[in-house]
Structure formats: C-alpha cells, structure tokens
Specification:
This protein is an all-alpha fold and 294 residues long. Helices cover 76% and strands 0% of the residues. It has helices at residues 3-15, 25-38, 45-69, 71-76, 92-111, 115-134, 141-161, 166-187, 191-196, 202-206, 208-233, 237-256, 265-290.
Amino acid sequence: MSSATLTKINNYLSLIKISHTIFALPFAIIGFFIATTYTHAAFNLSLFALVILCMVFARSAAMAFNRYIDRAFDAKNNRTAVREIPAGVIKPSNALVFVIVSSLLFVITTYFINPLCFFLSPVALIVVLGYSYTKRFTALCHLILGIGLSLAPIGAYLAVTGRFDWLPLFFSFTVLFWVSGFDIIYALQDEEFDKSQQLHSIPAALGKTKALRVSELLHLLSAACVIAAGKYGHFGLWYWCGVGVFIAMLGFQHSIVKPNDLSKVNLAFMTTNGIASVVFAVFVLLDIFLHSTF
C-alpha cells in the first residue's frame, strides 16, 4: 500500500474520529452479550461481526455528515479550522460521498441481521444524521447526540433477539444521560463562538457555571440508570466493581473542569470517558461470563 493511500485512509479516520468509537461500542458489546446470556440465545460470531460493522458504519456516517454540514462554521472557529474539510485535506463532495456509502452499508448490514433491525435502520439514520442540524435551533442538541449513541446497547440486543426488553433499555438510558452530560462539557469550549454564530447549546444558553450543573444532573441520572440496570439484572460483584469505576470517572471529570478553567476539557472528554466505557464493559462481561456470586 502506497504512502499516499495510507495518508488518505488516515485523513478519513481522522475525519470520523475513529477513536471516539470507544464511547458507544463497549455498550453495544454489553447489549449483545446480555442478549446471548439472559435469553439463552446462542453466540453467533457472524452476527457479532455484523453488529460491530453496523456500529462502525452508522457512526462513520454520522461523524462525516457532522463535519460536512458544519464545515462553514468549523472554518470560522479557530479550534476547528484545522479539521479536514475546512483545512482542504478532504473535499466536501468526497465527504458527502463517504456519508452516503457508509449509510448504505449500514442499511445493507442490518438486512443480514433480521427484519426488525432492517426496518428500523432508517429511523436510526435519521437520529444519528439529524443530530448535526439540531444545534441550529435547540440547546437540547446534546440530548439528541445522547439518543443517537444510546441506540448501541438496545440495537445490539435487538440484533440477537428481535425484541425489546427493559434491561438493555436501562443501559441505553445510561448512555443517553452520560453522553449528553459529557457533550455539554465539551461544548464549554465554544460558548462564545456559538453565541456569535447564533448556534444553540446548553453553555451558550445558560453560561458555563449553570451548564456544568446541568451536566452534573445528567451524570447523576446516568449513575442512577446503571445502578438500576444492576438491580434489575441481578448482577454480581464484578458488575458493581464496574459501576464503581464508571461513577468515579463521572465524578472525576467534574472535578477537573471548572467554569474558569477549561484546560482539562479534552482529558475529561476523551480519556476519562474512554476509560469509563471500556473498564465498565470489561467488568460487565466478567460478571456475565464468570457469574460472580461473591
């Protein structure tokens, strides 16, 4: 593979921030193995691969579409002007083609999973793609992003079972409030820019201090949901160890981000939340596979 091809691949991986897949993917894996354990469905490696592909395609389409739609705003913002489209590294038309191909691959993949996932795939795309427009008219855009990523655990569960259930929904609500909360923290960086461009966000609407209070409330709700999932699913010690880490990471990010000091926003956004999701998923899977009763 030539260096030019590798550079192009790296540019597209950067465009979609492939590293951010670490947020929702562990919860999709949780949803999948909850389905194979709690419903006694047989593990199917091909199905598992299809679920992972769905996650990758849907998230790639959503992220590239966000970059495509926001390219004019990104070019005006010093923080985002270095992104691939405003910097001229990737042409807008190529990014749009990437979105269309990723969306089609997502729908095609769901076809090979089951009819319910296939028929719901346009709804999922509407949510994850539609998020990119929401900051133009509502400060609740953070919740829409949360809804989009919250589809991961219930979607994986549906792939295995073809039906809804309460346990994966508890995890979906965990993701919804968790993602909405940390997206507000991330949006603190653009409070003044959003106001200048008449874009909507919780920080732009309420200011940094009150926005952080809203984020804290959402993270309290996320903690309550992950605890409720543990009670409802009758999980064991390993699960509760994971809950401890997850909640500790929620608290930690709020301890390092202050209204007058945003220097650690990226640490809170990427590192802390990445650790929270991965470590939590590891403990949940340990509990599922080892059936801890300590």
